[in-house]
Amino acid sequence: MTADVAVETTPEIPLWNDPAHPVAARVDALIGAMTLQEKIAQLYGVWVGASANGGEVAPHQHDMEEAVDLDALLPDGLGQLTRPFGTAPVDPALGALSLLRTQSRITSANRFGIPALAHEECLAGFAAWGATAYPVPLSWGATFDPDVVRRMAAAIGRDMRSVGVHQGLAPVLDVVRDARWGRVEETIGEDPYLVGTIGTAYVQGLESAGIVATLKHFVGYSASRAGRNLAPAPMGARERADVLLPPFEMAIREGGARSVMHSYTDTDGVPAAADESLLTGLLRDTWGFDGTVVADYFGIAFLKTLHGIAGDWADAAGAALKAGVDIELPTVKTFGAPLAEAVTAGRVPEALIDRALRRVLGQKAMLGLLDPDWSPVPPALDGVDLDDPDALRGRIDLDRPENRELAREIAEKAVVLLTNDGTLPLAAPRRIALVGPNAAEATAVLGCYSFPQHVGVQHPDVPVGIDLPTLRDTLAAEFPDAEITAVRGTGVDDGDLSGIGEAVDAARDADIVIAVLGDRAGLFGRGTSGEGCDAESLALPGAQQHLLDALLDSGRPVVTVLLAGRPYALGRAVAESAAIVQSFFPGVAGTHAIAGVLSGRTGPSGRLPVSVPRGPGSQPTTYLGARLAQVSEVSNIDPTPAFGFGHGLTYTSFAWSDLAVDAREAGTDGEFGLALTVRNTGDRSGTEVVQLYLHDPVASVVQPVQRLVGYTRVELEPGESRRVRVTVPADVASFTGRDGRRVVEPGDLELRLAASSTDARLTATVTLTGPERQVDHTRRFHAAFTQEPAPEA
């Protein structure tokens, strides 16, 4: 079925290929010239793997999909290529050549010459063989530094664009609700403001490089009951509106994200993939989002197989299209023949096809894929002889020194010092017992969406592709005069107790014990952290707590180091360790960063993006609890964390003083001005993170006791002072009222300037006056910080 549209052309260039015309006019003309099959072909992807020899890609066979016949599909065109670099280990230059040749085949096969849009994962770096593996998002959150995350994302985006990729499936904006969830490592933290600001910075960086950023997972995936992956999410409307949606609002409005991926979850019986009120009513009609909505992998088919709201593949396709899903990923299933037959039979209106197609082709036009001078040759291969693939091998470096330097900066800023009795920094130890399953494990710094852990583990004969020094390696370089004895003690999760005696003997012979514990990232039960690797409790996996307790009994000081994807309860170690150093899968430079903190070469400046529990079973809980979520006399379970959100120590000390408030009252449409002085009272440089929390004592609906509304990093030399000013708009006090509208209510507020959620330093009591005021997604999101030298005392 083809719409009857007059198409302006020139003898040389059809209107849809002419960049002199508006995108909308070009797209309308192209849609009017397409058959139904050609339209639908633009709405799905095919999962492929690049050729290791530079030839055309081959369809990837997955156990949830049927074999794909490219020869049969390509004459109608193709919307997307799924993960050509991220499916198998391929030299980047040969992968780029393979993608180039495939794009040439795609454009030659369809009568409009439309290339496919290629997407890849980029959660902790470009998920390709040989690409830099950056720290995971939980470490981004630990930096409390949007700028460094923005620079990292721009570097990732440049690498992706250089080899012909157009879209990145990141960032994850799910807010942690239960740390037992396996995908906690992929999140930025448990606070929506931290997730929103760090995630928006990532989007800005990726989009600045020309990559389409994809926000995921929209919305509620992380709110699953008991922290189980792809499980029911019992969130209420207010939790969704005030905790889970704000990061997406911010990333769309301030970040300019051009794509959103729906969640697997359902809300009160309505799956996100079929939720028209969410994907169209809220996302497009209210927020004004004009990009594409892509399916989470197999998510449309799940409407039939998992959610049970569709009787067949055509029902699933129609429900998703009506809701507002534009593109089926990772491969064609419901949007192929079943959808075409349903349209022909009148079960699905062709207008829904055209609506999705308009968005898809509009995005391709804006990426230049419809321009007459578009070339399949990516920047990294421009001007290169492509006739000799073997000569290309090794030509493209995706792990350049500047990448690794940026990875190092993030890793160092993300290391969190939880406790320290003065043992750290270590002063030239003579004998070090380095104990634990992650002490000499190179991949212990990598998350589950890093290429080596996500794909490389399936190809054990292929080199890892990047340099991954173990902590044993970096400590040997950091302390060249020390005798280091490395003992595994036990595995990450094997429960083996047989090596604990040897570990204790090594500890007793040492001056200091460094216990290196934590996780192994993996997928679907192959790890202790990662997608499908949920935890029954927050006890350390396997026999690691037994090992740690035995080391604490050795009589030697124990520095506990965590290389993990989630926070764990540490039992006795909270009080008895000489120090505890927390790191969340810190990437290629992670062990270098940890060694630097242990030696004092660098000062720790990370802050917890998630609370560390006191006990393994006091879940689910985050610091965003209401009053009923706090410790009480009517329950024997104490949810008080061992270390609260935002906590982190340094190697210096800071004094906070001279709080000033411009005015104690402001209208519900006004703002407050606060100022304080932060002084480094120690003998070495350091970074303080000033955090601003809002406490609303009386509201029309239950509120969390406090919530983060702003933060800033303050870097000071010994004796240096800085005057920190913050403007707090009334909008940040808004919440969803009883009638579902977001409102700012009059009344008293506490503005707590704090070093963490459990360490308020200065508090200003202020009052909002005037009428209740309604706000929306255009509200002011930020309490704005500025810094200046403090006046002389």
From TrEMBL:
InterPro entries: Cellulose_deg_GH3, Fn3-like, GH, Glyco_hydro_3_C, Glyco_hydro_3_C_sf, Glyco_hydro_3_N, Glyco_hydro_3_N_sf, Ig-like_fold. Keywords: Hydrolase. Residues 688-757 form the Fibronectin type III-like domain. Pfam families: Fn3-like, Glyco_hydro_3, Glyco_hydro_3_C. GO terms for molecular function: hydrolase activity. It comes from the Bacteria. Gene3D superfamilies: Glycoside hydrolase family 3 C-terminal domain (3.40.50.1700), Glycoside hydrolase, family 3, N-terminal domain (3.20.20.300), Immunoglobulins (2.60.40.10). Belongs to the glycosyl hydrolase 3 family. This is Glycoside hydrolase family 3 N-terminal domain-containing protein. It comes from Streptomyces atrovirens.
